[in-house]
Amino acid sequence: DMHIGAAHLGPKLRDLGVLKDDDLFMVSSDHGMSKSRRGRLFQHFLDVNKLEASCVTHLGNNEWSDVKMAAKHGFASQLCPCANLNRYETLLADLEDSSAALEEMATASRNTRLQYGSGGALTEDKLSNDDEALAGIASSVAGPVLVSFVLWALQRCREESISTVRFLTRDGELPYLIAKALPAHITHGLDLGMLEVSRRSLLLPAASVIDLDKWLEVGLEPGAFLSQHHERLDASQVVARVGLSFFKHADLLSQYGINNPDEPLGNDGLRCWKRALKSEAVQQQIRQESQHRLISTSAYLRQNLPTMSDKRVALIDIGWTGQQAAMLSALIRQEGGCDPLHLHVGRLRSRPLIVQADVNAWLFDEREQRSPVENPVALFESFCVTTSGGVDRYRLEPDGTAKAVRRAQNHQSSVVSWGQPGLRHCVLDFARRAGQLMNTMKPETLRATSEQLLVTFWENPSWHEAKKWGAFPYEQDQTGQTIKQLANPYNLTQLKSRLGDTYSGIDWKAGSVMLSPSPMRQLLQMREKIRRR
């Protein structure tokens, strides 16, 4: 069915290698009858070719005209809908300010999605519903959003005349690969690289370049870096953040009632820990360990940011509270470096940074506006998940070079089995297909489009999307020891706490709601609609 005739379509199909010289080609507009309206074109096809309907199989992408109407006239039929736009691609094509560029983005997304796992074969269903959901989200949401972020960051570097650009591990690994996958002229003249850092590797050295009282005050705020996950992690891991160990400092820790390295501190232990951190003896040990760690950390920064003393550098990361960026800025300034420009997806909370840092946020900054989606940390960490372990510290080699020492990735196998390689493949394939096109679009258009894609997926997932993405093994404590699925069906107790706004779990709420049984799901969905109003 097409309003354009065979004379126009035929040459195009021949150029694509679809139409051969001996093929019969019939278009509804040439014959004055269609498939969708009573299926008269099917009967006409049989009459022209003197065929019985039972000898013909019809393949098409529309359930009504290609399946039901074909069956009405006795044809066998096969539905092939995978080349239809999915709901995210349809959103791109239907946006109010939709342009040819957005429609081309939808096409790039579709081409990436179709090639994943099927080799472009439109008549074979080789993907499970779960894998199809992953490919759709990776190609149609994660790909456009992350490419938009990278293009914005690179443009900001151009605007600030910054040529040294470093992506921070671990969340910056995929954005770095996206930048490398873009056409060469987009990144021409930029020195792109990775900087192996983590909050864990920077935290203790920063205590030597930041006022220690301020460092302790900020670190002990609820959920901050000195007390975070004290109820989950063994005490040995919590005290290690300030350079203490039960092997070297057991007597000192025992003075404050901290005796068991293999059990979490809990609330009582946290109070003991806070009391210990106020003591001069513990603070003296922190200063000593900090100075020791600072030597190798400074060497690593000088080695990997060789121009920082003369020129400003840009540091690209996902974000969130900005405290890691602030500590990194302080360490760079301590080495005589220029104040770096931090480019993040977003900034959570409006609390002041531990020290001054220039942090620019792309999608949102909660000092000015709320995040467009709930729990953006889990969302972007699932997009940027890597199989690389986090950086623990730095080690000086005999030749004087500094090397990042990484922890083992304790949930690597679960990340891989969930589908991380497929996710990364689709995102990078989309970047190669659409990078040039998106570079010509206005950054504000890409940002607004990204927000709509994120809200559509994250706040309104389909059941298969909730099932597949909700199975993502979320690393809750940055050590890989506490892993939970991103979404789980709610039980009655959780339902009551959700309805009463007292739920304290960390999860993907919309995904968990979608996976919950009826009528619990309907109750939660109704409440969410009322809450948003």
Q: Could you write a compact summary of the structure shown?
A:
This protein is an alpha/beta fold. The chain has 24 helices and 11 strands. The chain has a 5-stranded parallel sheet with strand order 4-3-5-6-7, sandwiched between helices. A two-stranded parallel ribbon has the order 1-2. A two-stranded antiparallel ribbon has the order 8-9.
Walk me through the structure.
With 533 residues, this protein is α/β, with parallel strands linked by helices. It has helices at 6-15, 28-31, 40-49, 63-72, 87-94, 100-115, 129-159, 173-181, 184-187, 199-206, 212-219, 235-239, 246-254, 266-277, 280-304, 323-334, 376-383, 412-418, 420-439, 443-459, 463-470, 492-499, 509-515, 520-532; strands spanning 57-60, 76-79, 164-168, 191-195, 313-320, 341-347, 358-365, 391-396, 402-406, 473-475, 483-485. Strand 1, helix 4 and strand 2 form a beta-alpha-beta unit. The relative contact order is 0.11.
